[in-house]
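Researcher: We're teaching a course module on how sequence relates to structure. For the next exercise, students receive a sequence and then see the predicted structure as tokens, so they can try to spot secondary structure elements on their own. Here is the exercise chain.
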Amino acid sequence: MANRGQGFRTRIKARIIYLNDGQGDAMAIVQTDLTAGSLLLHHQVASLVAEETGLAPGNIAITASHSHSAPVNFFDNDFYNKHMSSGKWLEEKFLAFTVERISAGIKQAYRERRPAKIATGKQDIYGFQRNRSLTAYLANEGVELERTDDAHFTAVDPALHMVRIDVQDDNGTFKPLAAFSSFSIHATALTPKVQVYNADLFAYVQKSLEWQVQQQQDTPWPVVHAFATANQGDMAPALPDKGNNNISQHPVDWPAAKALGKRLGAEATALFNHLESELSPDLTLASAARELNIRDTNEAQGIAICTDAAVGSPVAAGAYERRTPWLTLVPLLHGGNVFARRWLLTNGCQGNKSQLGGAWLQPLLEPKDSFPNTVMFQLLRINDMAILPLPFEVTIEAGRRMRNAVAEVFTAHGEALQYTWVASNANGYFGYTTTPEEYATQHYEGGHTLYGKNSSPYLSAQLSTLAEDFLRQGKVHEMAPTWEYTLKTNQFLPVPQNSTHQRQWLTQPHKVAPKRSTDEAYVAVRWQDVAPSNIGWHERLVSVETKVTGDWQPLVVNGEPIHDDGYDIEVRFVRAHKQGMGEYEARWYNPVQGGEYRFVISPRPGHPTLHSSVFH
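Model: And here is the predicted structure for the students to work with:
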């Protein structure tokens, strides 16, 4: 169901926090609005920043919000470069662009570092997510929960974790700079029919805190809220249940995503404000990392996983609520039913997984070497908090067992942790990992657990071993001896063109009324500009100004700036024009009535600012 993006709304960001304890330990935590991390991306970023910052690869974590409306084609393996996009294979230019932006961000954070105070904390909140795979969850040993109407909303991980960072301004006063936080929720508030790149509900969580704190505290810098996903494998947003059907038939509901995201943003802001009294200049940092090819090293503490990956039949039909058109009608592909499981010869490492296409045919269509195989097991310690980045979508019970295993190691060494949590989709992507009990039900999540029924126990064993070695030895940074990838490539970004004509307006601003309750009213305008390859998409492009006492000023509504780095401005590429130019459309959703407004198109090299005609 992957689409080609026609434009963007709620920009895709990388938010970077650099920490240095002054005792020789430092780390860079990167949160991205991408679908997942990439080990190839991580390696290239680490290589580019090492000389200036001194950061080792294990000091860098690249996490993701897991937006399903973000570009991909930058993974370290052919399998996901093939199957997570409408176009196959690695896009080298997109990889290079992403590496450059994240590397530049880490270097900027390093150069602009200031004396800091820090606080860690957690708040349990309910009503924001629900368990989309309840039957599998209830199969877990030790779970005591009755199947009631509200069980989906209680079978969740309610923990909102946060690290707050304040830094010293030029006058010696400490003011808020950033927060790194996490919550167990899928970024699937917006359906597969969405036509533009976006950060899903995470954009509203991030910006709500950023704008509110910056205004309240009058900070001399933009506040950064890096909001990552935790163990979210079976956690859906708490929006109306559209059922086990083809969600592509349902309209995109931006208002619902915005409302839920802003509510969650308010909770994050409340926790941020609560942590003000906990701020301290004391900072203890530590990191440990171990890269392993899990096909070659497939056993840990006596627990073995498969040496070859396999995809289960339920993966083809899609997850609950996000069914693949037409394939969802095939009973064999519906997760959890009797057809999706194998009932004979189930003692192998893949258990009762019914392999998509059959155990003999699948390797011919999907070679074993095309799957991801190398995991960077990582542990980041910030004072009394331990973060465990993993390249898997971890279900909540699997994540609970993993963090408990690591916490128990710390406790045994007399260093009890206050907070421990798993960051899913970090530093790569391997699909899902479920508990053995969940795996046996063979819902979508179990079918997408590539390396078999023991995947989560194996990951727990590797993480606890890493924690043990770290506590006994001190630093543990064990990378693979070489980083080499052989990948198929393709090109999707626009071919550079020579834009020889001038910018000009093609239409006047005009209002478009909503057709359905899930639609938003908007004002649209079209203009001619340079070709997509020359537009500079990562720079501010479209904004709205309002007339105040005779002067034009940037429009801000209830603390929300109305430009394309906010909530409600969308930019689309419509078509190519002659002379290397392109036609574009800007939309201002949820326009405010009663003022004088105009669209502003920011300048580009050789092309001055454009101001539209006035509208009301």
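Model: If you want an answer key for the exercise: The longest helix spans residues 254-274. Residues 504-611 form a domain with the Immunoglobulin-like fold (CATH 2.60.40).
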